[in-house]
Design goal:
The complex is a heterodimer of chains A (205) and B (503). Chain A contains nine helices and five strands. Chain A is of the alpha/beta class. In chain A, helix 5 packs across helix 9, helix 6 crosses helix 9 and helix 7 packs across helix 8.
């Protein structure tokens, strides 16, 4: 995964709002990319680019909420800040329930929006790191033999070596050898570390 | 069957006997002959079937057995009195009397009596016709006539040629206020202000030429006192008397019309509500449209400030941003223009309205709103206000807007329990005034001067259009919307509407 510059994606059908937002991003030195419709964004978006999405909730064609749904389908983790109009609170609530980071009502104070954007970017970065870790852990798990995997699962479930030996019908000594291999392959510093890794990978499986 | 004394030559007597016997058995009417003491001498075949006696059962008996009481007892006297005085009460005249069958049932008969006599011996012949059926038909006709006469529907019969009324039932006479005598000098045209003789004649053509059996139409009738009422007429041509006549059955449609009117009013009211809520939706749309350029303007301005503050100013960037600010400002202006046009376009017809009624009608929406916020609305309406000539929907919009403002102002206030008061009054001979008085948070001194400016709002979610539009609407009616601070807190918004002189 190549390191990319974090980008503020702006999707708003209103040219005035869209361009002014771009100008604001420029004024604070944020990298941005603006789109006039949800579809245009969807066609151009690369899941690997970090950043956040500033999304108008009310748009002709694909609405902000629909775009949110489409991104979820693609398993995009890009945090979304919705910009809403006067009477859009119920829609905003729905957006939040669907996992939006925040919503902000038009017209807004620039600092308010910029704060939200910064928070969202940080969250995205954390999420991506977590995701990277998860990918790493999953990759390491791939290297385990089937028996090692079984031992890891039972260890993570809190079973003692003796019990595991009984369960698998092998000697306690054999379990100990497998366990040491698992710790090594998983690069686990401790039992607690191993349990955390197993849980992290299983979290969304 | 016969029992005639044989006094003539045998041959002649025989011949006569045969003749009589044939006559008696052929006659449809019953024939009964009696002697002067009332004893039955002859009883025809028709009499047998009419009375249920065989001739052999009655011959020689007193004829009174064919009569019910009291005739049965008095019959001998009738004969006696006739024989002594010679004054006929029935003989040669015929009349309707009662008869009695063998089984005791009584039935009406038409009785004609003839007298015959040879020498000292006299006798009587009765010819009897059973008139049960005829009687029944007559009774039916009489009761039918009574029903028609008593009917609350108006029923008119008028001559097909002259169109003069011949019969008019009581319902019609009472509603119209004319006597039958008066009506017999009138024609339907005299009652129908919307018809002339020519147009009414044209209406009758399809009935006269048999094209239609019945025509139904709605028109108005004029009473004797000049008042007019709506009617629905069912008209037929027929032979109801010696000459062809028209019969008209008429329903006073006043009630029908009234329920129709009520229905129409209800529908109008619904339309009003629909128009009011459409305006609400429109307002949301307008809010969105104004929000866009406002957002752009504020964002550009704030970004420009950031550039300047950072000291890293590209004057080209600034210029273009400021140009955009100008453009977006223009755009917001256009939205307002559009809004003005919409308000103008939304004007409905002006009609005379009782302003108290307008207030009450608005309550159906306003009260529900207030109640949702736990606020009561009290009405203090001056009775007998002259009507105002207004677009009811617009005035209701103004009222509703004021009520909603008051609700918002009261919602957060301590004196919520005091509620909102709506007053109507006539402060001058030429104006009525409607006031909405609340005990809410009131208007700050600073806000007071801007209160009616578009987009001025003290509400978190307000768009600042309500009072601005309301003032325009009131102004369009030649009135003015005013604000006053209540001495005991809260606000009074009131507007006056000019009274229309009836012309």
């Amino acid at each position: 995964m190549a390191t990319q510059t974090a980008t503020v994606f702006i999707v708003d059908d209103d040219e005035g709002v869209r361009e002014s937002l771009g100008f604001l991003m420029k004024s604070v030195g944020l990298n941005f990319s603006a789109f006039a419709s949800a579809q245009q964004f969807l066609d151009a978006y690369d899941l690997n680019i970090p950043g956040c999405l500033v999304l108008d909730i009310r748009m002709p064609g694909m609405s902000g909420l629909e775009l949110q749904g489409k991104l979820k389908e693609r398993q995009a983790i890009l945090p979304i800040i919705f910009i809403t109009g006067h009477g859009d609170v119920p829609m905003a609530v729905e957006a939040m329930q669907n996992g939006a980071v925040d919503f902000i009502q038009k017209p807004f104070r620039d600092q308010e929006l910029l704060d939200r954007i910064n928070e969202a970017m940080e969250q995205d970065s954390t999420n991506r790191q977590g995701l990277l870790q998860k990918h790493d852990i999953a990759a390491r798990m791939e290297t385990l033999t089937q028996r090692e995997h079984e031992v890891m699962d039972l260890v993570a479930a809190g079973r003692a070596n003796k019990v595991i030996a009984g369960d698998l019908g092998v000697s306690q000594r054999t379990v100990e050898i497998h366990r040491a291999r698992v710790m090594e392959k998983m690069q686990a510093r401790s039992l607690a570390d191993l349990v955390r890794m197993v849980m992290q990978v299983r979290e969304e499986a | 069957m016969n029992n005639i004394p044989a006094k003539r030559s045998a041959n002649f007597e025989h011949h006569r006997g045969v003749q009589l016997s044939a006559l008696l058995s052929a006659a449809v009417d019953a024939i009964v002959m009696i002697d002067q003491r009332g004893r039955i001498e002859t009883f025809s075949a028709a009499a047998e079937s009419m009375f249920g006696y065989r001739a052999s059962e009655v011959l020689g008996h007193n004829v009174s057995l064919l009569m019910p009481e009291p005739y049965q007892h008095e019959h001998d006297q009738y004969i006696g009195s006739y024989l002594s005085s010679g004054r006929a009460k029935i003989i040669g005249i015929g009349r309707e009397v009662q008869a009695q069958r063998k089984d005791g049932t009584v039935f009406p008969i038409d009785l004609s009596v003839g007298e015959f006599g040879t020498g000292g011996e006299r006798g009587f012949v009765g010819i009897i016709r059973d008139i049960t059926d005829k009687k029944r038909a007559e009774e039916k006709l009489t009761s039918l006539g009574k029903i028609i006469e008593e009917s609350v529907n108006e029923i008119y019969v008028f001559d097909a040629d002259t169109l003069l009324f011949t019969e008019v039932n009581r319902g019609a006479r009472e509603n119209l206020g004319y006597t039958l005598k008066e009506l017999r000098r009138l024609t339907p045209v005299d009652l129908k202000p919307d018809y002339t003789r020519e147009s009414f004649d044209r209406l009758l053509v399809p009935l006269r030429n048999g094209e239609m059996e019945k025509i139904v139409f709605s028109t108005r009738h004029c009473r004797k006192d000049g008042s007019v009422y709506p009617v629905s007429v069912h008209l037929q041509l027929g032979q109801y008397g010696p000459a062809p006549s028209f019969i008209a059955i008429i329903l006073d449609a006043t009630e029908q019309e009234e329920s129709k009117k009520k229905e129409r009013q209800n529908r109008d009211q619904l339309t009003h509500v629909a128009r009011l809520s459409t305006l609400g939706e429109m307002a949301a749309g307008i809010a969105h449209e104004i929000n866009q350029p406002l957002t752009a303007i504020t964002t550009y301005a704030q970004a420009c400030l950031r550039f300047i503050e950072a000291g890293d100013v590209d004057s080209g960037d600034l210029q273009s941003a400021l140009r955009k600010v100008g453009e977006q400002g223009q755009r917001a202006g256009q939205v307002i223009q559009k809004l003005r046009a919409l308000v103008k376009q939304g004007a409905g017809p002006r009609e005379l309205f009782d302003c108290n009624q307008l207030i009450r009608d608005t309550m159906t929406l306003g009260d529900a709103d207030a109640r949702d916020h736990g606020i009561a609305i009290h009405l203090a309406l001056a009775p007998g206000l002259p009507p105002v000539f207004v677009d009811a929907v617009q005035i209701q919009q103004v009222l509703l807007n004021l009520i909603r403002n008051s609700i918002d102002a009261m919602d957060a206030a301590e004196h919520k329990a005091a509620g909102i008061r709506i007053e109507s009054a006539q402060p001058s001979p030429t104006e009525v005034e409607i006031s909405v008085i609340d005990h809410g948070s009131g208007v700050s001194v600073e806000a007071e001067s801007e209160l009616f400016n578009p987009f001025f709002t003290t509400k978190e979610s307000g768009m600042g259009m309500g009072l601005s539009i309301s003032r325009s609407l009131v102004a369009a009616h030649g009135g003015k919307l005013r604000y006053a601070r209540n001495p005991d807190g809260g606000s009074t918004f009131s507007f006056r509407l000019p009274i229309t002189r009836g012309d």
